[in-house]
Amino acid sequence: MTKRPNVLWIMADQLRFDYLSCYGHPHLHTPHIDALAKRGVQFNKAYVQSPVCGPSRMSAYTGRYVRSHGSTWNSMPLRVGEPTLGDHLREAGARAVLVGKTHMAADKEGMAWLGIDPNSTIGVSRAECGFEPFERDDGLHPDSARQHWSAYDDYLVKNGFKSDNPWGDFANSGLDENGERLSAWLLKNSRLPADVPEEHSETAYMTDRAIDFMTEATADGRPWMCHLSYIKPHWPYIVPEPYHDMYGPEHVIDPVRSEAERDTDHPLMQAYLNARVCRSFSRDHVREHVIPAYMGLIKQLDDNLGRLFAWMDETGLSENTIIAFTSDHGDYMGDHWMGDKDFYHDAAAKVPLIIADPRPEADASRGSVCDDLVEMIDLAPTFMNALGCTPKPHIIEGRDLTPILQGTDGFSRRYAISEHDYHWSDMARELGVAQQHAHTVMIFDGRWKFIRCEGFRPVLFDLETDPQELDDIGASDSAEHVAVRARMEAALLDWARRHHSRITATPEVLARQKVAAEGGILIGFWDEQEYEAATGKPFSSLVPTGRPEA
What we know:
The protein is an alpha/beta fold. The chain has helices at 31-39, 53-62, 66-69, 85-91, 108-114, 121-127, 151-158, 166-171, 202-220, 259-262, 267-274, 276-281, 284-315, 346-349, 379-386, 402-405, 426-431, 479-497, 507-514, 528-535; strands spanning 6-12, 41-47, 95-100, 132-136, 173-175, 181-183, 224-229, 321-327, 350-356, 368-370, 374-375, 416-421, 439-444, 448-453, 459-462. The protein has two domains: 6-413, Alkaline Phosphatase, subunit A; 515-541, no CATH class. The strands form three sheets. Strands 1, 2, 3, 4, 7, 8, 9, 10 and 11 form a nine-stranded mixed sheet that branches. A hairpin with a 5-residue loop joins strand 14 (448-453) and strand 15. Helix 9 (202-220) packs parallel to helix 13 (284-315). 45% of the residues are buried.
């Protein structure tokens, strides 16, 4: 294979790493995702840069930590000048195309300052996170200010599902035994079948749109990266027939939790437990009602991926397309008495990551499992390498995974970092924490998971002795635990002191700064001889360039 490969980057929303059979789920069988793992590398320690949709995705799309790109919460704009993966790929002559969700919010104020028309080519690129928007759909429409009427709504209406909100009234609602329409926003309705046939569901529709793009891209001829970003299994938890009743309470795994967690003396953790979504999922009957729907959504996703992969095999695209599969974060589902995401237990911060590279160079690692610590920001430099981009270490903070994919040396990481701004939340309101202090950050070295909670004591887990993260030793006076906390705090400080935003300092700029004396900036030289000895150039070579010709 001599030509540059394409990249299909699949991201599910809110998919736990352990709700796939290749990651050990005992009841939920995902043969198509499992088969992808056998064709590539399955990563067992992949962590997101934030346990929330928006900032996690912005880190994935920029290859940078949350504190670097500044988009700290959902709908927090990514500043207009922030370089993205799409920008880097375009420089290399490759397309970067979105099919599905980004959670990107445009920096309208920044564009106004710079005089950028939002409808111009540049304006659209900035509003779409550098992606070419083949089909963008962030869900939550059309009643949400985030997204109004979408192409998927048009599609539903065209197929007979007519209302002012077809997404909410059909794709995310069900009918009870009396024919009454019930919203899936209410957890009690999650076991109803969604009121659309499976072939018209969000997951099936977005799979079809990915096929549409790849068909068009084949005719175009340019190398591409397609970001196929599914909305599900993110709430609302509802799935069409036949998936709605494939699983029942007997398939629901017992929650990972302890009474000690519920009796915590940590104010922030107690505030988490008091949040509505955590109170809901701490109840067994809620878990037993909702999780089967969640599992059905994952099974539906796997079946649609099987359909997509089969089409790619038939068309020959599989032979020259790197396929990466991951999630933007997990879902507590009642583990640790919590629901949704927003904190750093593995249920929320650890994600599945599978990368299948068809090139012969990756044959040595095919079907392997990698236990190296990796981060979501590592995908950007990996895709850039595959598509022929020049490395940009002055911008990209992630590390290229190619050595792992090719079974060679050259990749290492001591820590994974994840951050969360919780100022918007029930927790901040309950505790009265101001926005500038509502911040937590996790650092994990593969054994010790240390969570710094601004204004409160830290949280600490030892995953070697406590793999289920049930015992918070953040207040332990054990000499070992005190030493670990000090070491992890120091590691966080070291990370925070690094350059995070020096995106203009290219190697060329740095080289010019090193030879400032040759350009006439003379600091500390005593005489001509000293200058000539230092630069190897005669002092007389310093002459003005003069006024340019008119």
